[in-house]
């Protein structure tokens, strides 16, 4: 099968990714903020680049075959359908328990929504234009992994909110997002390149959202601690928990 990404396309995509980060960092004179963005972008750019380089390669196909031989061709575990949501649960449980965070709960929700909206558009846009077949042959929307992109977006929001006050909590989200990515491969739903690029997209998009802080001054609840609004997500169903202390 002809590789979807030839070398010229790979180089072009890498240049676009790196250029977008450099362009973003030039939008402010805050050198410390710029430096943090560049440092935080190293990992996601490396993930995306690695994924592009091995996409549809013989290495990737052999790796997938070896994995399935080890776990068994009948192996399936649906844990990845749940672990992608755990960083969100951790975020709001920490808020309820009073763990100090970077932002007010409304701002957390705002950045969580925006990050997932953008990463979701990018991820599904690629899925619907590349048509890469899943390892199990079930569909042609393998690249990149939506579960992984979503999980790493959530984990990165958790990281930004609690990296200063509770590092263990902040980094724990990445353990669950990595578990999600791992089981997407073990379950034969995604190739390694799919999850690498998905993880990179989730992290990079969230880095940029926290860099620009869109709608930063929009928070109707900033002067009240009596309101609590927590999103509820369960296997594709969305809702919200609202409370008001009189």
Instruction: Give the CA-CA distance, first to last residue.
Output: 65 Å
What's the alpha carbon Rg, rounded to whole Å? 19 Å
For the sheet with most strands, the description reads:
2 strands, antiparallel
The CATH topology is Vanadium-containing Chloroperoxidase, domain 1
Structural class: mainly alpha
> How confident is the prediction overall: mean pLDDT?
86
Please give the share of residues in helix: 55-70%
Count of alpha/pi helices: 9
Structural write-up:
The protein is mainly alpha-helical and 246 residues long. It has a single domain, classed as Up-down Bundle (Vanadium-containing Chloroperoxidase, domain 1). It has helices spanning 7-25, 31-54, 58-71, 80-83, 86-96, 105-130, 146-162, 167-186, 192-212, and strands at 227-234, 237-244. It is globular, with a radius of gyration of 19 Å.
Q: What are its keywords?
A:
mainly alpha; 9 helices; Vanadium-containing Chloroperoxidase, domain 1
Write the topology of this structure.
Elements: H1 7-25, H2 31-54, H3 58-71, H4 80-83, H5 86-96, H6 105-130, H7 146-162, H8 167-186, H9 192-212, E1 227-234, E2 237-244
Antiparallel strand pairs: 1-2
């Amino acid at each position: 099968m002809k590789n979807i990404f030839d070398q010229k396309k790979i180089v072009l995509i890498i240049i676009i990714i790196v250029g977008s980060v450099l362009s973003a960092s030039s939008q402010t004179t805050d050198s410390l903020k710029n430096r943090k963005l560049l440092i935080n972008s190293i990992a996601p750019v490396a993930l995306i680049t690695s994924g592009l380089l091995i996409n549809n390669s013989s290495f990737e196909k052999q790796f997938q075959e070896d994995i399935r031989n080890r776990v068994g061709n009948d192996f399936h575990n649906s844990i990845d359908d749940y672990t992608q949501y755990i960083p969100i649960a951790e975020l709001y449980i920490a808020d309820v328990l009073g763990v100090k965070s970077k932002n007010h709960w409304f701002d957390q929700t705002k950045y969580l929504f925006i990050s997932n909206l953008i990463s979701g558009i990018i991820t599904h846009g690629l899925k619907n234009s590349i048509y890469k077949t899943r390892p199990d042959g079930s569909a042609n929307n393998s690249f990149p992994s939506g579960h992984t992109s979503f999980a790493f977006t959530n984990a990165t929001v958790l990281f930004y909110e609690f990296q200063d006050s509770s590092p263990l909590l902040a980094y724990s989200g990445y353990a669950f997002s990595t578990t999600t990515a791992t089981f997407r491969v073990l379950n034969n739903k995604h190739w390694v390149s799919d999850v690498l690029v998905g993880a990179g997209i989730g992290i990079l998009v969230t880095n940029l959202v926290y860099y620009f802080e869109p709608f930063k001054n929009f928070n109707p609840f900033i002067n009240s601690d009596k309101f609590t609004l927590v999103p509820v997500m369960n296997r594709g169903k969305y809702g919200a928990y609202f409370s008001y202390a009189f």
